Every structure is written in structure tokens, then in C-alpha cells.
Amino acid sequence: MKHRNLFWLQLAFTLLVCAFLIVPVVLSVLAGVTENFFIGLRSGLTLRWIGEVWSLYAETIYLSLLIAVACLAVTLVIGVPAAYVLARKEGRIARVIEEIIVLPVAVPGLAIALALIIVYGGFRDFRTSWAFILVGHVLYTLPFMVRSVLAVLSIINFRELEEGAASLGATFWQRFFTVVLPNAKPGILAGSLMVLTLSVGEFNLTWMLHTPMTKTLPVGLADSYASMRLEIASAYTLVFFIMIVPLLVAMQWLSRDRRARTVAQEQPLPTSRTFSQ
Amino acid sequence: MTTIETASTAITLHQCAKTFVNGTRALEPVNLKVTAGETVVLLGPSGCGKTTLLRLIAGLDEPDQGGRVLFNDEPVTNLPIEKRNVGMVFQSYALFPNMTVRDNVAYGLAVRKISVANIGVRVDEMLEMMHIQDLADRRIDQLSGGQRQRVALARAIAVRPRVLLLDEPLTALDALLRDRLRVEIDELLRHLGITAIYVTHDQAEAMALGDRIVVMSKGQIAQIGTPQEIYFQPANDFVADFIGTVNRVPVAALSSRINGVKNEVMFRPQDVDIVTDGEAHLSGCVAAAFFLGDRTRFVLDVAGSGQVIVESLCRASQVVGSQVSLRIRPEGLISLAQAEHRS
Question: Which residues, 6 or more positions from B92, have their beta carbon under 8 angstroms from its beta carbon?
């Protein structure tokens, strides 16, 4: 009897926590499609506010997507080779560099933004272009790409795969593109989704780095909360959800898939490392 | 089986040593000549330098200053592995998980820019030779250990390498499969007539596969010889003790003299006869008996010596505690080529 009571108590608590987290989200989404939030749902549902958001803030949505894709391109080009080199190198220097790359995660976004402005703020054209925001986003998202690729590389024993490819006559670049990259793909994919998600949602850095001409979605969102009708701000939030939720779902799905695959791969050879020297 | 022609290559190692970046000396300067078409097994306990030696031959590592590696008469010391045209089978196979079996086997041909049609023909040939045609379109993670082994072999020989290098290829397999694949690898090597270097820590594997065995210990070559030489004429204590079981009995413990033996006799467990008459060389009390099916292994307590291990093919079963007399066969006496002083 005591056990059963405990179960219901736990369930109630869990549901309460869930409600605490989800109710504001649902209310916010509903507010975005309600004719008049102060009257409530009685006033009827409408897509009018979303249309309004589009005409007011379409620019910010495009810019956010542009920056996210550009940020992904840069982190791929820099981050994947960096992870590969770090995975190859043993020794203290490589580990120190690994830590330094991760540093921007720990430093507040505002501080990074301030540093960027102090150093590069004088270059007028650069300061006012979206590339300035891009630099901030790359700094902030790079560690996630590097970490994600590194994690996969450390699982797949890529050094032996590379030696195998070399023994068959493959040059460095052939090995890198036909063996290393395809086998690091789960990590690259996971890292890519992470970078896109973080870049689209980034506010701290961007708020400091933006100019009136370079507003991203989260910056516009803050702006709309401050100066627009509640319904428009809520509709705007809804648009943001529509962009970000598929990325989050894809990320979850990918990590589950990867976990399943690693287990399957490691099972058939439980003794393979036992006698290695 | 299909025939594939391979030009045999002799391998010469001259004063090849290897010191790692952290200062560990993995290999003392080693000289080794492998004749064309020969199968040489590098045998030794883990950490003896056998894998290091193999990696020098493969081109995965370079020897220290002064070391030279020659394929036939061509110096390859500083040539990286991708330019040496060697076939290599790794302990954990190093098969590419992103490719099918067929693509794995085709890989070495594809990077050589061979035409697609020719690759197809050659890959089919290899798959047939290793009896894995049915697995051609499987992914690597859908294969068993033995199947992976075959794919690894097919992939390594598909490029018609000058030499085939095998790094503990059977270690990851269970005992039964190991025996079967050992026979298959032996047939394959004979059939190809390719120069092969085979690294293992398993003496049974070494005995079965090697034309010659290189026994290694602590980064040095302890002995090079045919399996028979290694077994019956070990050069030193390490080889004698590492290969099979060897008994050492001080002369004082013998009940009758053996000509030519100064301080102790050495013999293999199977080189004795159990005798009942008075011509015994030594006698002892049975401490334990293990019936192994084809033979029985006895552990004897011999006065004035350590325990002596003896194997007998006859059905007579000596019970534990009984007294047994033995005669050592004269041809079974081992004398070390390089006599070392034992303390």
C-alpha cells in the first residue's frame, strides 16, 4: 500500500514539473494565434499575427538562417580538421588546445562580444556587416562541433582504419575523404545540428554585436517583446519554435541512432583489444 | 581456387632498431633476411618487439637512424606504407565500416585507379577464393569474426602485394575457428607463394604456419630457425622455456649416468619411456595425472629436482601416489646451442 502511494506521489510531482515547464509554452503559442489575448480564446483563432510578424520581421528570420548556415560552413571547414588533428595527436599540448577551444562555452557571451567589439569594432564596414555576428557565432559554436567529431573519432579507432587504407595504397587525402570523413559522419551530423540550433537561438552575443541593420531572430524577438502587441510577440515565438523544434528532434533522433549503432559494432569483437601491444 | 600470380619478394632488414618518442627502446638493432616466397613467423610474448618489427617492414614506422629495409635489392626504408605495395591484415581487421564487403575488397584497386570493370572481375575472384561471395553486399557490422577475417585477407591480397603481413590475425577469434582459419591461411600462403610475415604470440600457430620462426624476447631475436630446430634445438633458455614444456633435471638427481651431460639434462615431456626394469634414468612419485584423450600428462615429484612433466601415449594409467621409473630417449636430450650460465 505504501509503495502505491509513493508511486502516485511521484507521478503527481513529475506531472507538476512538466506542467510548470510546458504550460507557459502552450499559452505563448496560443497567444500567437488568438484574435485578442485579453478576451481569450473566445475572441477566435487567427493567423493574422503570424502574417504581421512576417511583414515586420522577415528580414531577421532570413538573417538568422543565413548566419546559421554560414556558421555551419565555417565550423565544418575549421572544426572537422581541427578535431581530426586533435584526435591524432597525443600529448599535453593537444589536450591544452582542446580545452582552449572549449573556453568560449564557459565565458559569458557578453564578455566575448565585448572583446570582439574592443578588438575589431574599429573596422567600420566589418562592424556593421553580418559577418561580425558570424564571427561571434563561430567562436561560440566551434567547440560543439569539435567535441562532437572528437567523440566519434575516439570510438571508431580511426588510426587503424587509416593504416588499413594506407596499406592498400591510399594517399593521405584519399584516406581522409574515403575513410576518416565517412566514418566520422555521425559526429559531423550531430555537431552540425548542434551548431545550427545554437546559432539560430543565440541571443547574448548577438544582442551585443548587432546593429539596427543586422538583427537576428532572437534579437528581433526581444525587440517585439519590448515594443509590440503581446499577440505579435507570441506569434513571433511560434515562428521561432517552428524553426528550432525540427532541429532539436533531429538531434535527439540522431544521438539515439548512433548509440544503437555503436553498441552493435562493439559487440561482436569483445576480445579484440585484449592482446594489443 | 583461382590462381593469381605474385612476384615473390625477398626482405632484408639491416640493423633495424626502434626507439619511441618517449625514449622506450622497443627494438634493439635487428638483422633479418627473409627469402622470396617464405613464410616467417615472428613469435614472442607481448612487448617483445614483434609488432614493432612488423611495422618497420610494413612502412608504418621508420627504423632509427642506421637501420635499412630492403625489398629484393630496392631500399624502401623511408618509403611510407602506401608506396610499398604490401598487403596487411590487422589484429582487429581495420575493415571500413562505411563500406560493404565488396567495396572493402575493391578499395585498394579503386585507389590505384583501375577500371571499374577490371575491379569487378578481380573482386569476384577474391570473394570466391575466400568463399565469401554470399557476403558481398553485407555491411561489416553484419559479419562474424571469422567472416571479417576472410574479408580482411581478401582485401589484402586483392592488390597483389609484394609481401603479405599479418599481425595476430587470429587472436580475436575463438579456439575452434582459430584452428580452422589457421589451416586455411596456411593453404592460402602455400597457394599464393607470397612472402609472408606473420606475427603471433601463439606457439602452436607459429609451428603450424612458419617455414621459419623468429623467436623474439625483449626487443631482440632470441633464435631464428625452422619449427623443428626451434623445438628440438633451442638456442637458449628463453626459447627452450617459451616453446612447449621443457624439463630440467640436475645430474645429481639421475639414477644412472647419461653420456655427455655435465650439470643438468633437458628434455621434452614426450621424450621419455615409462619403464619397469632397472634401466631407468630417473624415478619419481606421481603428483598429478591429467588424461587428455590422446595422451596422459603426469606431473612427477623427483627427489633432488623440481617437478618433472611427462607425457605418455600408452593406456596404462599410473595412479596418483605411485612410483614411476623413466628412461629419457637419447634423441630427446636438448643441449642449448648458446649455453648460458644459469644461477
Answer: A157, A160, A269, A272, A273, A276, B172
Nine-digit cell at B33?
Answer: 633476411
Q: Kindly report the CATH number assigned to the domain that includes residue A146.
A: 1.10.3720.10
In a domain, A94, yes or no: yes
For the sheet with B282-291, list strands across it.
Answer: B272-275, B323-328, B282-291, B296-301, B307-312
Per-residue pLDDT at B237: 86
Q: Which of A156, A168, A269 sits opposite B145 (nearest CB)?
A: A269
Question: What is the side-by-side strand order in the sheet with B25-34?
Answer: B25-34, B11-19, B68-71, B74-75
Report which DSSP code applies to B333: B
Q: Mean of the per-residue pLDDT values for chain B?
A: 86
When mean pLDDT is compared across A37-46, B65-74, B223-232, the lowest value belongs to: A37-46
How many structural domains compose chain A? 1
Alpha helices by DSSP H, B163-258: 175-192, 203-209, 227-232, 237-242
Which range marks the domain in which residue A215 is found? 58-222+245-261
Nearest to B108 among A169, A185, A274 (CB): A169
pLDDT digit string (tens) for A24-82?
A: 888 888 888 888 877 777 777 888 888 888 888 888 888 999 999 999 999 999 999 99
The answer to the question of residue A19 being in a domain is no
CA distance B51 to chain A (A): 8
pLDDT in tens, A202-211: 888 898 888 8
Identify the three-state secondary structure at position A67: helix
Tally A–B CB contacts below 8 A.
97
Grid cell 548512433 is found at A258
ipTM over 0.90: no
* A229 domain-assigned: no
Judge whether A218 lies within some domain.
yes
